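Weekly sync notes, structure subgroup
Attendees: PM, AL, DS (notes)

Item 1: joint prediction request from the bench team. They want all two components modeled as one assembly rather than separately. Inputs as received:
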Amino acid sequence: MSADFLYGIEVIINGLMAGVLYALVALGFVLIFKASGIFNFAQGVMALFSALTLVGIMEGQVPFAHLINAIFGTSIHHFGWTVPAVLAIILTIGVMVIFAWMVQKFLFRHLVGQPHIILFMATIGLAYFLEGVGDLMWGSSIKRLELGLPQGGSLAIENLTSGLGGDDFYGFFIDKLDIVATIVAILLVILLVAFSQFTKYGRAMRAVADDHQAALSVGISLNFIWVLVWSLAGFVALVAGVMWGAKSGVQFSLSLIALKALPVLMLGGFTSIPGAIVGGLIIGVGEKLFEYLVGPMVGGATENWFAYVLALVFLIFRPQGLLGERIIERV
Amino acid sequence: MKMKSLIAFALSSAFIATPAAADLVIPDLSYRTGPYAAGGTPFSDGYQDYFKLLNKRDGGIGGEQVRIVECETGFNTEKGVECYESTKGEGALVYQPLSTGMTYQLIPKATADGIPLFTMGYGRTSAENGAIFRNVFNFPVNYWDGASIAVKYLKDQHGGSLEGKKITLLYHNSGYGKEPIPTLEALAAKHGFKFKAIAVDHPGQEQKSQWLQIRRERPDNVLMWGWGVMNQVAIQEAANINYPMENFMGVWWSGAEIDVLPAGGASNGYKALNFSPIKDYPVLEEIKAMGDLTGDGSNVGSVIYNRGMLAAMLTSEAIAKAQEIHGVSEISAPQLRDGLEALSVTEARLVELGMGGISPEFSVSCQNHGGAGQAIVQQWDADAKVWKALTDYISSDQDVIAPLVKSDSEAYAAENKIEAGC
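Output from the run, pasted for the record:
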């Protein structure tokens, strides 16, 4: 086999892996949109905030230290202890649940019955507010995420495949972190599907997603379900924040990973968990292949815009997305 | 009655808040929020802390207190221009926007307003031609110098010849990232190396395609013109593909502690250009002892903090020079322009300021607003978590750069109908 052909396959494999990472972000959007019809602009910032909180707890950082020191003239920054990763993850999930409760209690409860565009704008406000709170709580410096996640290309795969394409082929490069992310994403999807299919609260969540009024009429608490959904989205955001943060350190640009999820949602549909995964994979492979084949002819850096072109093409033929619910409105 | 009290209070507050007219007003177009905050914050901290030190220790500059007017840009060019417009009326003496994009937007505005722009090591490279860019100063070193210094260093590393070598530039797909490309193309023609440029789109969080390409093409060296998250991800990806870290070198905006720390031990050996070696400059102790630091003080002595401090020091020296030239302490922006143009930095003066070795010696002139055109190469020691200087100051190749500066600046002059001064 020629080296070029094998490198093409390598690009496809890496595109699939990148697609999984995009899908991780998109999942959070889907959960909230499916349950409440809200397009949550703050999902990327939630990933940032949860990752900041995780590192802050692990490092024993004092939240709002800068503010406390400015007000009281103190100079405290750390508690002097570190927290094991597992405990820190549990505590971070707790913080995201509290955040979900506060969002429901102080924001969306007051906006019940408002048009979707108002709710969308509320999430824009929420995104900027949360980014500011994250800065005040944990500071704006870049933090290293030390969860012991593997990094670097898999030498085993590289060695195993290096003889396939002659001297010009160096074996397939597959990042170990991407392999972990893929496994985590698969587990996450199984967990979410199992939760929504086989648990009481999962079924209640689906009932609310199908018809708010009907769900209310059978005694399902809308408030509780929305807190639950936002908590789940917070958990998904934490997973996405950890995976992306492991690549770059935890920093404020993490909030921009939401931009990677938008074409995935357009393509896969806003209401389908499998759609987010399939959409992520198509976008990942599509943009990487385009960059590999066409990028060198047009100066490169095509991925950001080509992902949207791909999504738009799908949108023309299937406006609800590949696996999204069909839009039927009675006139 | 209540309303009257309120108005009276508001008016009195306004008067109280109004500073003395004699203050030396220095706007700080900072970015402490957004995706580039990790780089913007230490620069701003260093910039402000040095002026605070002068105010506290020396009573200001020439008896005049320095007043910093901070305006948050979020590294957004439009916001940067808004900040310029909203602060210039306060009597702004000089702008340091810390963004090449903003610099390009501000050059015509600041020139029309007679306010100098000091774009230290960034911005429009050909602005070093002071005869055309009368109000813009980019000393002590610029991007084209940086590209030339990097190539000069690599030539030494390859035994004096780059013939047939492959050098790849990984660049931020913006005006800033594209700045060194013409110089590197000219240098490739001169030295016979194969040059390739690979773009990374903002913000640079995802670079898999770029590094797979580098893995396929196996360049002898990779240069990086990055900023923000692009740097951290690039260094991690280089480690992932086992690219030899000692063959990977960044410009000075890709060579801070924040760029290498997230990759941990994998970043060991990464190289970068810098304005000055990282060491314990005595002035840092004075700053720490001063108290009332900007920010939480954790950035003091870091690469970008020191650069902000250097920018403040050069600005304050230019202010002192302007006061000396014009015989007044309350200088205006055009007078500061004269001070910047007459600036001379000597090692003796740097030692006096507690910053011996932080900059090469250089003089600014009417023709040359670019200064020394020198930089050092430093290397990251991941175990000790310190940058170690590998070289002394290396000079750029003016045989290549001078004609490029001349043609670019003259094209700008022709386009904007500017008559060369000096």
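Discussion: The mean pLDDT of chain A is 92.
Action: AL to compare against the crosslinking data before next sync.
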